[in-house]
Amino acid sequence: MAGRVAHPAEPGEAGEPASWQRSLRAQFPIVVGHPDLVYLDSAATSQKPRAVLDAVQTYLTTSNANAGRGSYPWANATTALVENARDRIKAFLDDPDPGRSSVHFTSGTTEGLRSVARDWLPALLGDGDEIVVPFADHRANLSPWLEAQELLALRGVRVRVRRLPYQESSGDYDPQALARVVGPRTRFVAATHVHHVYGVDMNVHRIRQVVGPEVPICLDAAQSIGHLPLSTAALDVDIVVFSGHKAMALPGTGAVWSRNLRGPVFRPGGWSGTPNTVGVVSLTAALDWLDAAGTDRIERWTVALTSRLTDGLARMDAYEVLGCRSSLTAGTEVQRRRSLVTFRHREIGSRDLGFILFSKGFMVRTDGHCQAGRAEEEGSVRVSLHVHNTPQEIDALLSTLANLQ
Questions:
Q1: The pTM of the whole model exceeds 0.85
Q2: d(Cα 172, Cα 270) in Å, to the nearest integer?
Q3: Contact call for residues 385 and 336 (beta carbons, < 8 A)
Q4: Which string of b and e fits 327-363 if b means at least 16 CB within 10 Å?
Q5: Are the C-beta atoms of residues 370 and 140 closer than 8 Å to each other?
Q6: Which residues contact 19 (CB under 8 A, 6 or more apart)?
Q7: Where is the Aminotransferase class V domain (predicted)?
Q8: DSSP E strands: which ranges in 135-279?
Q9: Which segments of 288-361 are extended strands (E)?
Q10: pLDDT tens digits, residue range 55-103?
């Protein structure tokens, strides 16, 4: 959680990669197979370890069938795989009451949040109620709530949407300002675990302290799943939505975990149809791999790398690092960025800088990053890391950027 000093790097992380990290890096075929390229876009989609690819291959060549549609062994095995995946997600999220909670599969975070807004939220709200949502996070965690407000208005139910306030000094949510926003008609809060542009742990646990024990909290965990531990018990949230492809699984599969304690039980509307069984298989394998690797260790590694990058960028006048400026000072008490760093060159446009970096072998994201309230012309370069990245790659990137000053 934010508000703490980031874990220091483990021995060896400041120079040569630690032996455990070398072992994990070797498990990514695409990384090993392209030693001349550096993948720095894990926030957009993650690369897949061999264990995930093998699990998919095994399933497709031994027991591929539809789930819940047949009684023959392959169909039964697939049905069991899907149901076991729900339990696996609950365990990965440190579910405090797995007998009450539910897991529903979606195509990803965006569709999951839209399902919550479309299928669950309206039953919670009445005329004159208020919801609090983020206006500077990913658009996927703003647009669905505004759409729900419009749909309810057509039914004659007027819902006020309030802005979730941010702290300028740290970049995360502002609990003191939130206390002035929350009122007796507050019925719902949407939040983000880790910001997709600034890399900040948004201190969601403090939201519960402000809103009290009855208000449901929905968490966008797209940028935290697989990068750091996420305990639904500790955060005391009610809904967690995430994408599998950002957590080392295949594209096209995400999940909505619902605690079903506050508000109505979450049930997606309409006929669900055939689940993405291959994606579900890959997601279970990815969570197994992440547990074995240790998300706490992955967090320490990526925080160390992003600190290395921000410390280097802070010494270059040509670059502006987006987000909390206080966190650019080594030894700061402000939290360091988790897994991603976003910056601009003061003279070179972000797209041009992206082309230059790719010509040197670095793959980064360059645009507005789907941030709500920001135009695409406010582009920037986002470097997002995972456990397969190394200090040497960061140093090589910094050397390239230094030559562009």
A1: yes
A2: 36
A3: no
A4: bbeeeeebbbbbbbbbbbbeebebeebbebbeeebbe
A5: yes
A6: 12
A7: 38-260, 272-397
A8: 160-163, 186-192, 217-220, 239-243, 254-258
A9: 319-321, 340-345
A10: 999 999 999 999 988 899 999 999 999 999 999 999 999 999 999 999 9
